[in-house]
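Deliverable D2.4 — example input (structure tokens):
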């Protein structure tokens, strides 16, 4: 299981995030997603701790805490939703437009 950390400053680094969470136990991994097009941080991260007890302690201590001028949103990460293989989902499909009368 991992922890979702939201409302992060765009100036945050992996090392800084690692140091904050290390106060609550062993940090296994820190992931800072970036925008595909700009390469800029997206304002959230995922942190994996050594045990569930460490994760719980970090969540309880850091959720709502102010860090780098922002109030953090910290909770258990939800599994990624399966978005399927299509782009844009169901687009409707009005059929044959030539037969529509306006």
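Example output (designed residues):
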């Amino acid at each position: 299981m991992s922890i979702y950390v939201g409302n992060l400053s765009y100036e945050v680094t992996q090392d800084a995030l690692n140091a904050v969470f290390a106060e609550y136990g062993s940090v296994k991994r820190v992931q800072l997603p970036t925008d595909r097009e700009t390469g800029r941080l997206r304002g959230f991260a995922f942190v994996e701790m050594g045990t569930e007890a460490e994760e719980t302690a970090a969540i309880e201590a850091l959720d709502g805490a102010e860090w780098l001028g922002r109030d953090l949103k910290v909770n258990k990460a939800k599994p990624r939703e399966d978005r399927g293989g299509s782009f844009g989902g169901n687009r409707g499909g009005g059929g044959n437009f030539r037969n529509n009368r306006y």
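Strands lie at 3-6, 27-31, 45-49, 66-67, 70-71, 73-76.
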